[in-house]
Design the sequence.
C-alpha cells in the first residue's frame, strides 16, 4: 500500500512539474518575443533619429550657405549703391541736388534691406529632431 501511495505521489508531482514547466516555457517564449519586439522598436526609433539628425545637419548647412549668399549679395549691392550715391552727390552742384541724391540713396538702401530680409525670411530653417522616447523593458511575469 505504501508503495502504491509513493508511486501515486511521484506521478502527481511529475504531472504538476511538467505542466508548470510547459507553462513556464510558454511564458519564457512570450517574454522573449516581447523583449525582441522591444529591442527592434528601440533600434528602429534610434535609426530614424539618426537619419533625421543627419538630415537636420545637412539642412542647417544648406540654410547657412544660402543665407551667406544672400548677405554677400547685399554687401556687394550696398557697396555699389554707396559708390553710386557718392558720385551723384559729388557731381551735384546745389545743396538741393545733393539732398535729393542722398534721399534717393536712402530709399534705395531701404529697398535693398527689405529685399535681403524677405529673401532670408523665405528660406526654410531646419527643425531639430527630438530624441526618441525611452521605453521601459518588458517585465517577466512571475506566473503565480
Sequence:
Amino acid at each position: 500500500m505504501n508503495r502504491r501511495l509513493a508511486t501515486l505521489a511521484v506521478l502527481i508531482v511529475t504531472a504538476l512539474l511538467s505542466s508548470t514547466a510547459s507553462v513556464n516555457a510558454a511564458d519564457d517564449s512570450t517574454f522573449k518575443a516581447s523583449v525582441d519586439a522591444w529591442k527592434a522598436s528601440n533600434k528602429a526609433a534610434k535609426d530614424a533619429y539618426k537619419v533625421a539628425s543627419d538630415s537636420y545637419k545637412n539642412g542647417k548647412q544648406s540654410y547657412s550657405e544660402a543665407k551667406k549668399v544672400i548677405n554677400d549679395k547685399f554687401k556687394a549691392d550696398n557697396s555699389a549703391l554707396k559708390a553710386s550715391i557718392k558720385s551723384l552727390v559729388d557731381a551735384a552742384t546745389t545743396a538741393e541736388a545733393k539732398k535729393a541724391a542722398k534721399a534717393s540713396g536712402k530709399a534705395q538702401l531701404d529697398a535693398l534691406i527689405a529685399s535681403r530680409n524677405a529673401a532670408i525670411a523665405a528660406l526654410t530653417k531646419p527643425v531639430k529632431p527630438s530624441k526618441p522616447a525611452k521605453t521601459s523593458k518588458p517585465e517577466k511575469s512571475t506566473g503565480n
Summary: The longest helix spans residues 2-91.
